[in-house]
Amino acid sequence: MLFNSLDFAIFLPIVFALYWLLQKQLKLQNLLIAIASYIFYGMWDWRFLFLILFSTIVDYTMGILIERENQQAKRKLFLWVSILVNLGFLGYFKYSNFFLENFVGAFQFFGQDLNFRGLDIVLPVGISFYTFQTLSYTIDVYREKLKPTKDFIAFTAFVSFFPQLVAGPIERATHLLPQFYNERKFDYNFAVNGMQQILWGLFKKVVIADNCAQYANQIFNNYEDYSGSTLVLGAVFFTFQIYGDFSGYSDIAIGTSRLFGFDLMRNFAYPYFSRDIAEFWRRWHISLSTWFRDYLYIPLGGSRGGMWMKVRNTFIIFFVSGFWHGANWTFVIWGGLNAIYFLPLLLRGNNRNHLEVVAYDRWMPSIKEILQIGITFILTVFAWIFFRAENLTHAFGFISKIFNSTLFKLPSVRPSYLLALIILFLVIEWVGRREQFAIEAIGEKWFTPLRYTFYYFLIIAIFWFSGNQQEFIYFQF
Amino acid sequence: MKKFIKKGFFFLIGYLVVVQIINYFAPYHWGNPWYSSKIQYLGNNHLEKKYNLFFFGSSRVYRQIDPSVVDQVLKKSEMEINSFNLGSPATFSPQNLYLYENFLESDLSKNAKYAVIELASIDGIGTKRLHEERTYYYQNFSDLLYIFDSYNANDELFKKKNIEVYFRYLISLFEKNILPANFKHTLIDDNFYKKTYLGQKKDGYFSLDKELTTSKDSVFKEYLYKRKNGLSSQDIELRKNIDLKTYSESNLKNNKTNIVDLTRINNLIELSNNMGIHLIFMISSRATSKNLTALGNKIPKSNFIDMANPDEFPFIYSLNDSFDVGHLNEKGAVKYSRALANKIEQIIN
Questions:
Q1: Which residue among A88, A121, B142, B173 is the one 20 to 30 A from A79 at the CA level?
Q2: Reduced 3-state DSSP string for B181-229
Q3: How many beta-carbon contacts under 8 Å exist across A and B?
């Protein structure tokens, strides 16, 4: 069920009420979370419940076996069982057809036509997210950063936790699993904060993302009919669509978790106010980039072993990150492009600048910062073209159509209401950039009716613009 | 937790108040596209045309009552009648009563001398029409309570079918009063207007035959074609037998009249009288039921017309005069309109 659906609006209060009625009965609370999460996931496709259950059983068992085993070789073996099962499922469901098609394509290139029809495989929703989450568990147990759990219900609840099951944030076992062992007390401020974050997430998803999607789809799907300037606008709309969609989902996930007393990691930190690509990647999909850093980059050697090693590892991470997003060369190119953007900063040792949010202690950015933000934004928009395109032909066709004389014509698609909404959205994000989410501190010192009026405005805007409902983009990953 | 629930409750109340205020001040948006088209046409032409007899109801009004025929018949009795058909598809109780009450409050009723409302059962709101503006635009608390009371008066409050109906009305009321879907339409959409909905003579009557031949919507044409060709004499005969049975039992002593419906009807009659309008309730052809006939028997004779009696109007069960199982064709509509006009004349005179 979608977060912005009537089903979820009915599901959440029921689970919330039952959950807090079971306060002080920790095991029952965890069991309720597990059951509710399985119901939540089963509404997508009940068949894949067996997959997530199997993955849960394997990793639970491997965690215990790793801890019990003294011999390093056997410990590694159990770890590899977990890795192979999880990545095996991911590989089969997500990448089988891609590899087969490319294999066939390679033969065709040499004049051999293999009679191949694609496999009819349905991608389980959220598989890329929960497999990485459970992998973090077994890897951390192996690294002795975490004791394996003997509480199967708590572990099941951790793996399937419905707010973040299908599109993240990809939680670390070291952060989320211990929260299932401890009694959760209802905290008013925590819950209110959660509601605010849900509201803001819904605004980003329904008002910004879904409305941008309408025009982005129209332009991308018919790019041959539009001028260069319209295509640029289409790419910008997609830029805001993917941000509103994905960060909106994360906000709803984090906010919903707070209603149940759980604290999830932050996943987005105003990435479009970044002054360089390195900062962008510290602020975009933080849970995934830190996962790759901790479980791929560092094991590959990380920043040790000289500049060549650093460059190699960086490129590997970006390519793999791109590939994680989808079984298509466009995602690989998107990852590679970001690696190219990152390279100059890496070579000059400037990839750790700008650790604080821009203009942290000021109201407005400096001219230099505005230029830096603008350039980073343009680079990001360009890369998103590959992310959005159906295939490489589409991507290159789109890009080549941008760079002609029609680039300087007025765009033929100019929804003024949407442009106004995007500006309003950016203003709110800018004002709230120092907070965990933009509206966290807005209205904190306001008169209550005024603060409520602001929230009512957001709610009405959400319902008002809810006619163009689109699925969350990241569900396809 | 108590503080959270309490604050949440007040927040929700505040939101409901804000939405009601916006709904109150926003201009009205007619969610029924046929009625919207007709009411706008009337708004622009009522002074010039001086319509004084109005028909309200479902497609059994819209597709079967030809105002020009009615006016012609009544003119022979030296009555200066200029009628207008405000019927629209699937407009049953309480929507038709709501529309009439709204009409009484508007300037359009100033010239009205007569009004005919089709007596109908409470609309069950099929699943296809749920969530449509056509369904939620007229929802209000008063009508919701009326529905409960009406079912209760029939001892049908807890029937499974009716529980589903309440749920749909509650959802529709929620959509109108809590989701700003309604005032979104009122604030940014113009009221719907389509000239063809007014009919060929712009008097609100549009027969199904004409719709079939003139419609540019191929899907809708196909649908009408199937309805027309699917009609058999057995269907008509079956309907006739049902109605004959209904009438034969209509005077039985144990036939209970729905007192809630009757009260509302009598109140509307009185209200109309006070405004100088003679209100008549009518049972349409092939639309009767035990409840409606029982109700009709209790409405004052000067305010009630029964157009469904098979003995009195045998043509309404003629295959030649039928379009489909529920409606007459153009030929049948002429006969029907004449018969109705005669009945109106008897009442008025």
A1: A121
A2: HHHHHHHHCCCCCCHHHHCCCCCCCCCHHHHHHHCCCHHHHHHHHHHHH
A3: 27
Classify burial at A299, counting beta carbons within 10 Å of its beta carbon; exposed 0-12, middle 13-18, buried 19 or more.
exposed
Residue A433 near residue A175, CB atoms below 8 Å = no
Nearest CA in chain A to B8: A192
Using alpha carbons, select from B249, B242, B217, B239 the residue that is nearest to residue B328: B239
Measuring CA to CA, which residue among B191, B177, B132, B184 is closest to residue A464?
Answer: B184
Q: Please give the model's pTM, rounded to 2 decimal places.
A: 0.81
Nearest Cβ partner of A459 from B3, B4, B15?
B15
Task: Point out the residue among B1, B18, B180 whose CB comes nearest to the CB of A463.
Answer: B180
B151-171 burial code (b ≥16 CB/10 A, e <16): bebbeeeeeeebeebeebbeb
Token pair for residue B160?
A: 């499974």
Q: What residues of chain A have any CB closer than 8 angstroms to a CB in chain B?
A: 20, 186, 188, 191-192, 449, 452-453, 455-456, 459-460, 463-464
Q: Pick from A165, A163, A156: which is nearest to A127 by CA?
A: A165
DSSP H helical ranges for A69-169: 72-90, 96-109, 127-142, 152-160
| Of the candidates A302, A218, A201, the residue with the CA atom closest to the CA atom of residue A256 | A201
Give yes or no for B179 touching A (CB within 8 A): yes
The whole-angstrom separation of Cα B69 and Cα B83 is 10
B2 interface with A at CB cutoff 8 Å: no
Structure tokens at A384: 């998103």
CB atoms within 10 A of CB B48: 7
Would the pLDDT of A474 be above 70? Answer: no
Tokens 């509206």 sit on residue: A439
Residue B79's pLDDT band (boundaries 50, 70, 90)? confident
Distance CA B149, CA B259 (A): 9
User: Which of B3, B15, B184 minimises the CB distance to A464?
Assistant: B184
Residues A230-275: tens digit of each pLDDT: 999 999 999 999 999 999 999 999 999 999 999 999 999 999 999 9
ipTM score assigned to the predicted complex? 0.83
pLDDT value, residue A477: 61
